[in-house]
Amino acid sequence: MMGCWSWFLWILGLGIILAMVGSRCVHATISCSDAIVTLTRCKPFLTRGSRFPSVLCCVVLSNLNHEASTNQDRRDLCHCLKDAAPGFGVIPERAKELPQKCGVQIRVPIDSDIDCDTIPMQRGMN
């Protein structure tokens, strides 16, 4: 269990990251900062604190996936998450595993090497 000091540092770090990437905005109904806050539900899995993502993590991943409904939404979300991930200590391999572990077919590739401007990667997407 995290002590008060650890929680303070976590919240401070989140605030700094949100300030850094907050200017990127997903054109859908969710901003970059909202997407990051939403995905903090997945932090235990993404940082090796947990072997499996929680049900809540998978639900928010699915919801976020549906909110990024256009190619531009997906590009913006890709840039947002790619920029924010290192500051949260996200392990790239865990990020790649997340959709499969949650049973969610996502529209935004999770790969630290992806060129977000090349989205769409899948046929049949807007």
List the helices and strands and how they pair.
Layout: H1 4-21, H2 32-39, H3 43-46, H4 55-67, H5 71-88, H6 92-102
Helix pairs in contact: 1-2, 1-5, 2-5, 4-6
Can you tell me about this structure?
With 126 residues, this protein is mostly helical. The chain has a single domain (25-118), classed as Hydrophobic Seed Protein, CATH 1.10.110.10. Helices cover 57% and strands 0% of the residues. The protein is globular and about 30 Å long. The model is unreliable at 18-28 (pLDDT under 50). Belongs to the plant LTP family.
Key structural traits:
single chain; 126 residues; mainly alpha; Hydrophobic Seed Protein; 6 helices; 0% strand; Bifunc_inhib/LTP/seed_store; Plant_nsLTP; Non-specific lipid-transfer protein; signal
Specify the helix fraction band: 55-70%
Strand count: 0
Name of the top-level CATH class: Mainly Alpha
- Which range does the strand content fall in? under 5%
Radius of gyration: 14 Å
The span between the termini is: 43 Å
* Average pLDDT for all residues: 79
- What structural class do helix, strand and pairing data support? mainly alpha
Going by CATH, the homologous superfamily would be Plant lipid-transfer and hydrophobic proteins
Oligomer: single chain
What characteristic shape results from the CA principal axes? globular
Number of domains: 1
CATH architecture: Orthogonal Bundle
How is the biggest beta sheet arranged? none
Poorly predicted regions are 18-28
What order do the SSEs take from the amino end to the carboxyl end, as H and E? HHHHHH
